[in-house]
Design goal:
Length: 341
């Protein structure tokens, strides 16, 4: 997943390096920008460091993206009673990332549960990132993170990592579109600090990001290789839902369109679980996109209350008539309730 960028190179000459780190930069060559810290100037030869431009840190779209990711992590790790408030401060040591990957992948990592030392934290991060990279490697996914960048609380690296996990594991969230940030890449070469101003694109359009969602299932195979058999599956699901909806004198003929407003989905859950859903809990005749999303989200909550896993499809995708998302939701119901009367 290649990221477009543009680079503007400025070169700063460094005066005598002092042991105390009180180095100065040749003032006439300075351009307006973030102030370089003493530790930036003590970089080893040919080493590199990336920092987030302060203007991007205050960007509202970037802040919105962070909030979406934080809410998603907290939702996934609710059972572990883990609450993330700040991506930089709460994820750098690998503890939360370990729990998140284990929850998403369903695989337990062989790492110490609690590590206080820097060495232990980096060892945990190494194990977590090796596991993540192993999952993404067959997809030729470019990695914008490392043990050092995560442990040094590099916010851009942390966000890139979380985005890769969210996209790969089809997180039921709506990522803000066209979010980009500016970073300053500092590199020391032949005693001279070089700073490159780089624009990093974090998210693109929802459609493009959906293409990157790599989780494949039976419906992907059907749609890609055996579309003729898809009608057989749809007919089976229609038979299943009508078996129950007919009790309310309702009938489905088109799966993608008739479940898009969430009404039938809510009513179906009540029938499958044998309870009446109060009408004040959802919109019986939704008119706006938001009302339809509310209905589908409410139906998802009912599914979880019934002991089902949280659907990986997003409510917005069902409302937008995404056939695969609707099929996944209904097939999950069929698998769990096919023997219900």
């Amino acid at each position: 997943m290649k990221k477009p960028y543009s680079v503007y190179l400025d070169i700063y000459h460094v005066s005598d390096l002092q042991a105390e780190g009180k180095n100065t930069i040749n003032a006439p060559l300075l351009h307006p920008g973030p102030e370089l810290l003493p530790e930036d100037m003590l970089l080893e030869e040919n080493s590199e460091k990336t920092i987030l431009d302060p203007t991007s840190r205050e960007d509202l779209n970037f802040k919105d993206l962070q909030k979406v990711l934080i809410d998603w992590i907290n939702s996934e790790l609710e059972e572990d009673r883990i609450i993330v408030k700040d991506l930089e401060e709460d994820l750098y040591d690998g503890q939360v990332l370990q729990k998140l990957f284990e929850k998403l992948s369903g695989h337990k990592l062989n790492v110490a549960e609690v590590t206080q030392s820097e060495i232990g934290q980096k060892q945990k991060l190494q194990t977590v990132l090796e596991a993540v990279n192993g999952v993404l490697r067959p997809l030729d996914w470019s990695t914008e993170w490392s043990v050092d960048s995560i442990h040094s609380k590099n916010l851009v690296s942390i966000v890139y990592l979380l985005l890769a996990l969210a996209i790969y594991y089809v997180a039921p969230i709506r990522l803000p579109e066209h979010v980009s940030v500016k970073v300053i890449v500092i590199k020391k070469k032949e005693g001279i600090l070089q700073t490159a101003h780089v624009t990093k694109q974090l998210t693109s359009t929802t459609t493009d990001m959906m293409i990157g969602r790599s989780e494949r299932d039976a419906f992907d195979t059907l749609l890609d290789h055996a579309p003729d058999k898809l009608n057989v599956v749809k007919t089976s699901l229609i038979t299943f839902v009508n078996k129950h909806l007919n009790k309310l004198n309702l009938e489905v003929t088109e799966l993608e369109s008739q479940f898009a407003d969430g009404v039938y989905l809510v009513l179906l859950m009540g029938l499958l679980e044998n309870y009446f859903v109060p009408l004040y809990n959802f919109y019986l005749t939704p008119e706006s996109f938001e009302q339809k999303v509310h209905n589908v989200s409410f139906a998802f909550e009912l599914m979880q209350d019934g002991g089902l896993q949280k659907p990986k499809a997003r409510p917005e995708d069902v409302v937008n008539l995404n056939l695969k998302s609707t099929l996944r939701v209904l097939y999950n119901l069929f698998t769990n309730y096919k023997n219900s009367e």
